[in-house]
Batch of 3 targets.
Target 1
Amino acid sequence: MAEPVLRTEQLTKRYDGLVAVSDLEVDVQPGEIYGFLGPNGAGKTTTLLMVLGILKPTAGRIYLWGRPLEDEPLAVKRRIGVVGEHDYIHDHVTADEYLRFFANLYGVPNPAGRIPMLLERLGLLEFQTLRARDFSRGMKQKLSLARALLHEPELLLLDEPVSGLDPHGIVTVRHLLLELNRSGVTIFISSHLLSEVEQTAHRVGIMHRGRLIRQDTIPALRGLLPSDPTLDVELQAPVPHLEVQVLKLPVVRQAHVNGRRLVVTVAAGADHRGAISQAVAAAGGVIVGMQMHEPSLEEAFLTLTDAAVERWVS
Amino acid sequence: MGLVADARAATRILAVWRTSGRPTAAMIRLELSSTLTTLAPYAVVAVAAALAAFVLQNDLHRVQEDGLLVIGDPFAVSLYGGVLLLSVYVAASAAMAVAREREHGTVELLAYGPVSAFSYQLAKFTSHVLQYAFLLVLLLGAYLLLAARTGLHLRPTALLAMALSIGPAAAATALSLLVAALVRRVRPTILSVLGLAFGAVGLQVAGDVLARLPAPEFHVNPVQVLRWAAFTGSSITQWLLPFGYVDRVLSVTLRGDLTGAFGAAVAACAYAVVVLILAAAALDRTGLRR
């Protein structure tokens, strides 16, 4: 297995008796998108700030590309792009001036070509001479992302990267992240938006009250759920005793008919839509629509965090 | 072997430049362009030039009235006032820049990248010392105009005193950066820097005034006690605070004691270096987060 891009070893941060992060052991593999999930106050931002050397850990160590962070923090940070919790953009600077300053700071070759290219990719090119005070929150967020990408980082650390973006902006950023990842950039996304992480991340770590309660792939996390997928079937007309027919199938756990609507809970692990269609047809029904609902990461997250809370309470 | 060692040294220098030098240079450029495009520094130079014009006009008026005025250097008082004003302005400006950026969160944004607490403080320090040098050139231009207009001579020692005042101004800037790192918030930082500056100058002026007062012949003499207290306080602040170095450099230079002048300037520079290191350590310790 390759050396993790980012690895933490019993990372702990305490503030005056309050444990913000406790014995955190995270590893982010090269070329993956890692979703760092958790509710507000779970310790995600504290972890990111420790990884960036802005907060000093109370205990534990951080390794970037296999080397302790404290060895060469500045050299390492040149390889990282960051979108933080806040945008911190001075109101009087234009997008172009802002990016030009950071291009100088990182020593970006050919900023005159790189800056317009990034602004165009994020839909900000026409606003490059606009002052930041006239930017919306979403535009500032995109500008922060452009800043993080200026020096072509190998690792992107993103704290709530789509917060404040409109649906179009969310799709733009999602596509950009996936494209960057395909080109080899490792991405670490800290978020409380489970749906967003679900669509991009390969692996997910779930934080709760400063602890990493689970670190796994999304299908594996879904597999932890006790609930099976449900099929929502819309019929052309009501069919008498349909649920009795459907319940005869061994894969069906539950069936419920409400007028022209049939809701069936089936066993997880395979696609049973064909079998359900055949059973409905055999009972004389005509299907006009069918939707499968799988347990979301959100449900997995809630199940896991609730279980963790129960464990600690007991 | 020599070639390999040279190449290694060059690579190391290049690496240091990439990791620390380039970001510092970028921050210096930004700071200079943002401070020198505002009105405040030019207003301070204008006030210093107006003060000099007032003092010189007053001197000329006394010459006209009394027919004779014996004065060592006609620009001495103006120079004290001007240099002190510029030093305090630059120190307060540096402190405000750090405190404001910390309060706003910009320092944290810089720390996402290749910027350490030291390179940040070094950039603030260098840009403000350069700003001081630039404003000094403007003030010199104003003095030359006044010299030409009044016919009073601007002596070479005054020019040297101006040049050497960069050392004390650097010391004042370093101290203000230390205050900003320790205090964090904008308003208390500015009040602390101004309090230190005017406190030190006020103590010195009080000492001078008390020294000229006739001491009444009581058994326990209150003027003597106050004089002693002011002298002690002033002696301490003369070395602990950079504004004492301004006085030392100027008075020694204007007296024509060049060795003493360079010595005082070097002492001020050494003070600046030590305090700058402390300021960086303080910023690192108190944290870059707002």
Target 2
Amino acid sequence: MTNRMTLRFVSLAENVGLARVAVAAVASQIAFSLQDIDEIKVAVSEAVSNAIIHGYQGRPDGWVEIQCDLDRTGLTISIEDWGVGIRDIELARQPAYSEDPERMGLGFVFMESFMHGLSVESTPGQGTRVEMRRLVTVSGELSRDAQ
Amino acid sequence: MTILHSVQGTRIVVAINGDLDLKTAGPLRDTLDTLIDRYPDKHLILDLAEVGFIDSSGLGVILGRYRRLGQNQRTLTLSGVKPSVRTVLDLAGILSIITVIESPARKEIQR
């Protein structure tokens, strides 16, 4: 099967939960395990939190858009904001990099660990787009279909 | 998210119900800091038996409280951690620095 979803919401912390629940509902339509879906939810939560905290720097009126593309081999998720952008993507992706001592700088670590591919495009002053893909696996290995 | 607490001997037991993310991190941090300041000689146990989701925003609150308590030789312990939450704690390296006990501490609150 194939399925697609676009979800657009403003940059409020209340919408982080909305985003991960909506993506989980799409993911549950193919053969992901419950653990897979839990991990996808963490990755989505991190990407949307980054858009709100860093992209819009806490501003509540920016748009965040999520697109999901689902087929039987897996799920591709893109999360886009039109905020301040990232000046140095490589630096931002390093573990423990954070400008806030209360945050752990693990957002990209979780996205990379829980997904099977992550790309980040960003233009300072224009915004950021994160795309990540999770493949259906069997007992922790990539299924024949996915390969 | 709802937060219940009880003071038992040398420990503050805090039972959390709900997801720990960007929305709930601020209120949780404020509540825990209030309890830590109100009972300055007590250790802290966080019961996560009813927490089904945590991300780095929630982890930041836990690690931040662990560091605050450690400045005064006080400890933070986690209890009743669900497998989905344990995976995230493990990946963040928290399981190697914070003690986790299996049985939910919230039974002591409800008793």
Target 3
Amino acid sequence: MVYHNLKALIKGIRSCKTVADERALIQQESAAIRASFREEDSFQRHNNIAKLLYIHMLGSPAHFGQIECLKLVASPRFSDKRLGYLGIMLLLDENQEVLTLVTNSLKNDMNHSNMYAVGLALCTFANIASEEMSRDLANEIEKLLGSSNTYIRKKAALCALRVVKKVPDIADHFTAKAKNLLTDRNHGVLLTAITLVTEMCQIDTPILDEFRTAVPLLVRNLKSLVTTGYSPEHDVSGITDPFLQVKILRLLRMLGKGDEQASETMNDILAQVATNTDSSKNVGNSILYETVLTVLEIEADTGLRVMAINILGKFLSNKDKNIRYVALNTLNKVVSMDTNAVQRHRNIILDCLRDGDISIRRRALELSYALINEQNVRILIRELLAFLEVADDEFKLGLTTQICLAAERFAPNKRWHIDTVLRVLKLAGNFVREEILSAFIRLVAHTPELQAYTASKLYLALKADISQESLTLAATWILGEYSEIIVQGGVVDDDQTVMISDKDLIDLVLSILDSPYANYLIRQFVLAAVTKIAARTTTSVPEQDRIAEILAKYTTSPELELQQRAVEFASLFTLGETRIGVLEQMPPPELKATVMGVVSENKPVGSTKGKEADLLGDEVLSTPAVGSAPQPAASAQSNQDLLAEIFGSSTSSPPPAQQQRSTVDDIMGLFGTTSAPGIQTPHPNAIPSSYPSTPASSFPTTAAAARAMSPPQPATATAPPQQRLTAYPAYEKNDLKITLTPQTSAAKPGVVMILARFQVSGGEAATGLSFQAAVPKSQQLQMLPMSNPNINPGAVETQQMRVVAPVGSNVRLRLRIAYSIAGQNFQEQVDFSGFPPGLTGTAS
Amino acid sequence: MAINYFLLVSRQGKLRLAKWFVTLSSKSKAKIVQEVSQLALNRRPRMCNFLEYKDRQIVYRRYASLLFICEIHEKDNELIALELMHRYVEVLDQYFGNVCEMDLIFNFQKAYAILDELIIGGEIQESSIATVLRTTQASDIWEENDDLKAAIQDAALA
């Protein structure tokens, strides 16, 4: 049915039960309106447009009504004009061709005998006029600025604003008229005139200078608003026309900026507004806020400035959140001009970090970054770290970056700097930029005095939590690099030095591989780290063998980078003395001249790899020619190594050129001829040699490092047995093996991350594997997609799950597994409850 | 003080009025209406009346079942924007006499007409409630006179 008028249509649409019904009705009605337009039914036009505009608001297309609106506007009836102009404002904008057809109607109506018709035309013009239309009608507008009717004058002023915005070069056209308007007694006209003048001053400096003469006039206007008593027409909660006051203050700001004399003229009135405005309501504060902005931007005297900053300080402690928000926002703009004044409110600003409203937290955070300096860096970073602990995820990346940058810039000492970054890594290790991580590693490499300290801290942190990616990466790298320091010096936990064995350290680093958080990058870091650890004199032969085994396992890894590293590292193992040289501690990377943690080309990890690749390349080339001249470019030391290696591997007898203490042990160890397994007693000289470029005076000062200087103690495993990540078999049939590795974090009891691994033991690939799991109702399960549903022989595919279970309960899973091997389809269901109890923490 | 757009949205997220003072494609308008009203509707009571949408400053305020939303320029006074919004609500209230959402649905043209008397091109043009009311009602009378004239004409013809 077709609705005869707007009211009926609205009722019809509102009575629709479903969205589909509503859409069908609108479509039908649209079609009817279109048909009616085609019949040129001028009696129905008004009704049709009204209905169409309603449909348009509901989101349906209505462009076909544009021309009909033009026809309505041309009608002599006022009601037609009113609706027609509304339609034009809603359906047209400055970019549409049809708009040019409106120009003529606008021009006619601007000269209409009915002031309300003139008003409609002016309103439409001010809202949607294009550049072309602005040029065409600029003269009409200028004429109407001089109209004797305030209703027309105020609207014409905003039309002039549109012209000035669209065609800035004819702004001076309006200067004379605009000046007259500033003396107008009507508030509406004054409001719009000031808006126009503000815009004109913004786009043109000569105009701005010209209007400086109006400062005394504006001051008088403002003064009368502030001092006159109650005026019912313009009163808002006891304040006379706050809208006009704000407009005047804003224009004064532009006129006073950079001009001593103008600023001087407005000083008194600004002080008067600042002291006399009632600050108990929003409206008063809106004026105070505008006053503060003006005072801070003009050449105000010091007393006035202090007053302005104090107003903001009062705003900060206001109960109204809107006022606090505005204060933080404004202080953000002020902080670069007058940091000390803002510093005084530091505590309140920091309190705002804990506000329940994210808009306020965001503002407070921006402001606190700007407040950090040498004097308060300790306090502020402590606060920011406390905030980092509870911050919304969306803030974390910015926070970690800002904290680390500020630490780098203002750190009172290196120990504090390292502590700060360590804390960041622990609290938000999954939200750290790569640059920050490499800057940290660079810092540690450059601080030999604190390497033992840092390594010890990272050892403990990694043991407590391996779910923070950047923490894991930093710890893996540093433990790999400085393993001998930590094995010799022990770990300082709660002021107690606990000795750890090489096995403890390697267990910890390898446990990362089994963690569900281990990603591609982390695994690469781990392989490099254990390879380095294996090359240290503090690592016993059985442990070295174990590392060699792990590396061998990865030589078939389907992940290219891992496989390549494993193959390269494994063959390095056969190189004896060369390996020691290659895997020596990295020289500290070059420090970049720039202050901040910019990415350095010498990323520590990257350059390690480059060096190995070079030497391996040499080795491969020279293998066929036994005893050929070594590469001349190589250093003397590595020449010897290379020679030793080449002789060693080709004759399988002790190398003749053995010169160094550890060479024998290492090579014997590698060939399995030594009968001294177990813990090697490191040579005392080994320790100083790990600080090659450090003068004796700057030797380790921390307790742990000091102990490292004393004769080494036998490294007995005094550390508590470490919880290894264990893989539990869940399914093994038809050559398909599935194991589950659970991992928990003490910080989050009840959350168990489980890594499922899929392997085939036969020579056939399993394809189309689907692995589904279910948990009891009391638990929750999330699953990530599988790395690959097809499992090739030798490959290991993985899938991650996360179970949230009540603390103290056992994790039980029902698994449904479907796959096909060698053309045969299998589908099975098994129940798994093989995890040890207490995985979800102990109920307290 | 410059407003980029002014929206009126019901608690269910239905658009009741949309006035655009910046030129945008209908697609981006629809996107803004959807996203900004969701943001504002999701705010809890007693939070501040400001929020950020793509680095733009949004001021919103809730009146019964209706949400009044506007985007203002970065350097604008958020507090006076709230007052302006309230001014509009006051005029609506006096015009309709205890305005409710239904009034605005069935008389959306009037809601636009009143807004046009208060704000033009994103700038406030009149701070007096009485003047806005008076001019809107005067326009209404002109409209009714048209109908009257038409009726007289019809009668004369008949």
